[in-house]
């Protein structure tokens, strides 16, 4: 089960990187501008080190499938449904980088009808739950906390770029970043 999941994750990430590269080319041909370039290598490092830590913790400490797999596995499957709903909803605008086409209308369909950052929520849940599926508590805690710090930088950079270059404010002013059931309060 561990090897199967690991192969699936690696293939998924490689496919996403190829899709992102294709979308980057498409967006830049239409005047897309990249933001947050300085923090992007840290995001890549976080995801690579997450996988290395996960593999090491499971193999070195002989971790096995949790007895709570029936709770965690459906959460992971649900995150994948949301992930691909977000990717397909964004279409050619989906990317692992922050690339904005000035004056383009932001996508507000799919899961973006309900919240601002469904893909970041998915990543956060994956980083928390995938290691927990195999009792890799250290990886889960360490990378969940690191991801929170990284997402603070990433989301602020992305939102700043969207606010300055698109109709982001008018489309997303009433939506919460991560939880669609919570109402955004006036700031």
From TrEMBL:
Keywords: Membrane, Methyltransferase, Transferase, Transmembrane, Transmembrane helix. Gene3D superfamilies: 1.20.120.1630. It comes from the Bacteria. It is found in: Membrane. GO terms for biological process: methylation. The keyword Glycoprotein does not apply. The chain crosses the membrane at residues 39-61, 68-86, 120-145. GO terms for molecular function: methyltransferase activity. This is Isoprenylcysteine carboxyl methyltransferase family protein.
């Amino acid at each position: 089960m561990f090897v199967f999941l690991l192969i699936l994750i690696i293939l998924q990430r490689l496919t996403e990187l190829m899709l992102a590269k294709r979308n980057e080319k498409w967006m830049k041909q239409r005047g897309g501008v990249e933001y947050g370039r300085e923090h992007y290598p840290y995001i890549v490092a976080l995801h690579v080190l997450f996988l290395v830590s996960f593999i090491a913790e499971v193999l070195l400490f002989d971790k096995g499938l949790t007895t709570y797999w029936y709770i965690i596995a459906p959460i992971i499957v649900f995150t994948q449904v949301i992930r691909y709903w977000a990717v397909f909803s964004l279409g050619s605008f989906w990317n692992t980088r922050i690339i904005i086409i000035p004056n383009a209308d932001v996508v507000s369909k799919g899961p973006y009808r309900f919240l601002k950052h469904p893909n970041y929520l998915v990543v956060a849940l994956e980083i928390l739950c995938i290691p927990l599926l195999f009792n890799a508590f250290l990886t889960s805690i360490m990378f969940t906390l690191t991801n929170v710090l990284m997402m603070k930088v990433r989301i602020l950079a992305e939102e700043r770029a969207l606010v300055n270059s698109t109709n982001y404010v008018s489309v997303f002013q009433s939506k919460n970043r991560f939880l669609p059931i919570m109402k955004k309060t006036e700031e």
